Every structure is written in C-alpha cells, then in structure tokens.
Amino acid sequence: MPGTKTTTNLIGNGLHLLIEWPDERRALLRNPDLIRSAVEEFLRFESSNQLGNRRTTVDTRLGGVDLPAGSQLNLCIGAAQPRPLHNSMRPTG
Fold this sequence. Notes:
The protein contains 4 helices and 4 strands. It is an alpha+beta fold and 93 residues long.
C-alpha cells in the first residue's frame, strides 16, 4: 500500500521528537489544538521522506542552471537546516 512507510516513519519520528523535546510534548498535551502545527513541524524537522526524484516537463531554469525538459532532479528533502523545534510549534496570532 502506497504511503504506509512514510506515514509509519512520520509517526515514529514524531514520537521520538516528543520524547527528545519534553517541554514541547507537555505544551501539546496542554493544548491539543497545536497538533496540526506539530505534525507540520515533525515533517519539517525530521522528514519521513529524505529523497525525492522528479523530472522536468519543460525547459526551465533553477538556481541559475538551465535544465532542458526531461532532466532528472534528485531532491534532498532532509537537507534543510533545521531551526529549533520549539520556535515553530508555538501558535501564532
């Protein structure tokens, strides 16, 4: 079944982050309305899918590099520099 591995990994990564960040776990338990932002944060901070492959469908330019249609791209999703977890799990507004 497609998607089960990434979902399983997301759940495991989320639980691990909540163990590693007990203050955030307590904040989430106190305010369950934070679950949506928490899941987004789990995905951003500890992606369950580290690589993605794509192919361009039209000629395009990315980061100053010309890519003809049909070019294969390997995206490193987990390569982003994470900011501290607790900053973005907080509600805004």
